[in-house]
Protein: GNAT family N-acetyltransferase
Amino acid sequence: MKILERVSIVEYEEKYAAGVAKMWNESRDNWGGDAVVTTAEDVVEKEAESTNLHLFLAVVDEEVVGYCGLSEYKEDKGALYIPLLNVHPGYQGLKIGKKLLLQAIDQTVKYGWPRLDLFTWPGNTKAVPLYKKCGFFWEDRDDATHLMNFMPQVLQIEALRPFFDKHDWYSTSVRPIEIKPDGRKEKGFTFYEYRWEAGEEFVRVQFERTGRGISLIETNDWQVEMEVPDFKLLENKDYPVTYQVENFTSEGLEVSLSGNSSPLVNEDLNEETMVESEWSTSSSVQVQVPDQEPSPWKTHPVIGADITINGKRLPLRTGVFPLQAGKVDVRTVQKYWRPRQKGTLYLDVESRMEEKTIWTIKWPRQKVIEWSESSVEVEVEGKGRATIPVSVELLKNGFLNEEVEVEGRTEEGRAFSFRTKIALAFPGFGGKFGGDTDTEWYGYNGPYYVRIEKRNHMVSIGSVRSKEDPLLLMTPKLGHPFSEEFSKKMATSVEYIELAEAFVVKTSLESEAFPGIVLNSYYKIYGDGLVELHHELINNGDNDYKNLHLLQPVFPKYKALTLPEKDGVVIGAEALIPYTEYLRDKDLSERWLYTTNRAGDTFGIAWPKEATGRKDDWRFAFDYPLDQLPSGQKICRGPIQIGVNVTTHWSDWREMVLGEVNPLPEKPVFEVVPKEGFVSKTGDEVTHSFRSLLTPHVYGTLTVENDANLYRKEVKREDGVTAIDVPIVHERPGLTTLTGTFRSEGRNADFITCQLVQGDQKVNVSQEEDRWTVDNGVLTFTASPSYFPGIYSLCHQGREFLHHQYPEAGPRSWWNPWGGGLRYVMDGVSPFSMMKEETKVGSVSKEDQDGNHWTGICLATTFHEHEKVKGVTLKQYALTLPEVPVVAVYAEIEQGAPRTFAAEKIALEAFLKPDENLSLCYARIPTEGVFHTYYAGVEEYELESGPSVVIGSDGKKDHLMMVHSQTRKQAEMYMNQDVFLVESVHEWSASSQKAAAVRPTFFVIGEHEEPWKQHPFHRISFKGI
Structure:
């Protein structure tokens, strides 16, 4: 049996979810080769939230091989829509797509809808012949590849039914099929034509593009046609519209004609006659200009009539574009204005008249700008354009929204006039205002704005100073089932509300899918770039609603995306901009997202506790379950928060929207990570895993090199994994470095990481008088509280890395007393004051997040003398592991003072000298500039440090890498002829009897010559911090 004969078209049920997932995973090449991995659970969730009226599946021997959704078209009235059509690549060319499309057309006819639309992309040339053969016309547009199918209307015309009852419309179609946009252009119109032939019988039907209606029908027996003189018609001018009927039979036709045009068309048409051969009639029509210019996304105003032939109705409709005699636009090339600033506006004028005209434009008096002249005169060619610079002075930041009067005359002296609206925003510092153009509503506060499209309530949030495109809030939806009704509705009202702290734009949308429900949206724009969105639902109807949901989709650009998970924050450090489908939305542990681009523009997104942030097909969305909304009641929800350049780092955005929270470590999207943890013991097998924190499968070849051993593993796409594992036994203790590559068909990566391998030797802590020394077998560090309250010496295999003058602190450079080494310094506490306090030292063992024990010393200083911090105890920890050349340093602050400390600073100072000669010691700092290495002991430098810095000296292969805490406020370096200082500044707060902690900084000694981009140290924390 042929495959096509085994294909059945069925309605989707959950039992098909696994088959649908399999089809999508095997159809990637149909959709650009993306790496999205779909599961049965994904399908169940997506289809449960879908706005589809029907979902048709093509099934062959229980395998799902085709998919076709059918929903209401959200961009225009009067049409259903195919949001997604797919045929499994292994089953293409077998007419399965045709069966699915014909099923969708049949269902559209059953519902009584006149049209079926879909979108595709210009390069989808394989599918275009199928679409056209099934009745679709490709619209000639620049902004979208949009196809319209009028077959449902044709098949519902009673007068044509005899032909289509006898003949299959698909097989009798003789329409030319070409891989290009369709249409015959004439007098500004675009006409689409169907033609069917079966022996001596034929039918021809012509549709006009913008009115989406029939302009001509011809059969063997008769022809009806309407003719409009031009597509663009001037308002208040009489135009003749002709209707013609031809009778090709020997019997007369009973014909009646009644006008059925849009409300903007003035027409009086009502006639009846008997047509023996040929009959035509003309009516005089006038058009009015609508409040909004007709959009290519919508059906235009139409001129038309219902003609009946022998009692059978034939609807004729032709779309038109009503115009004034001219159009005036005012524009500026300047983004930002300040009061009393003088500048230039550009007046763009367009004449719709045939002859040359002279216009006089009179400027209205208003409070936003002052015109240099009260009027301007311009000569415009027939149907021509002109632009004129106009000098102005800004009176105040605001929205210029005025009607201007245009008086004109032709060369023959005939006078005319019209009034037109000009609209332009003048944003500037502190300017809070709103206004609207023909197509959009705006709200501004300083450079920040909210822009709302009138036709579909799509909202853009951005800044005029940003280099990034605005964030897009898609049309809200009510459900279940979710309705797309608001996507083709204009708000019933818009209000502008100025508050002391913000500017608010309020829009109101009335639901028909849920009668009586009004959705009010409040967009609150703050002057610092924060925008808050509150929703208010009011039930003005008689029905009580239960289990109502409000869905607010958003479409961010996921550049350098940051998202929170339970054990850290996923950081998008790659150039890859992920799709929404790549996100693991169920792993989100907190209510926020954050993105940034290379220019430094940031977007923060956050949602309230009562909402769920989740995927909504290719969008992200916030889902509010509303439970009950009784008649006469209202519910308020929100706010959803959007931050436009509000913070420069994700941690600040997180703290802003969540309040006081514990810090989270960063995790890159892709990395090589040991499953058993970053700390192991000699002889242990550690599984090093190259893994992705996104949903797409990882496939390719992973190569890892460690201690001259090479490990290689290859994984194929069909293996369906998100991690590639390589088990390695680490035989030697210390800091073992792993380098490697990942190669796939589409990407190449290089990486370097490390493993901390503990040896068998124990860490020894010894005391000699007041000198405390920690020895882990490969390095030692020493503290002496009577000398200076810090670690003054750090030696690796006998080589000193710290700079000090033990046994006696004294003056050096800008400091007195100076003890060097490394220590934490509390703000406002001088070295003299610190030396006055008693510091106690003791051995200590601390457990990290994976249960590994680090050993070292703690220096505890309780302040009794210093007035500001009296009662506070500063604990400085220095810890290490057996035979591992790494030292972890962190601080705890026990706040015993009877006061609260807020936003206090504490700095970690490290004075470094890895060679006896300071001028041979250097810091290596990767930057965007040309200099990367700076030497101490030569001249004075102040330098900004990155997340980590490599310290070395000429002639020595071992370097010290100082890895700063991610919670630092800043990190800098200072060099002069006497010292080499690296400093990181942190912030702490604590009320009385509470404690605060500074996360660890790591000192790593090895042969690394550059700071590592990825490493494990930021994830190491100690219990109690």
Observations:
- Residues 8 and 530 are 53 Å apart (CA to CA).
- Residues 677-758 form a domain with the Immunoglobulin-like fold (CATH 2.60.40.10).
- The chain has a mean pLDDT of 93.
- DSSP finds ten helices and 78 strands in the chain.
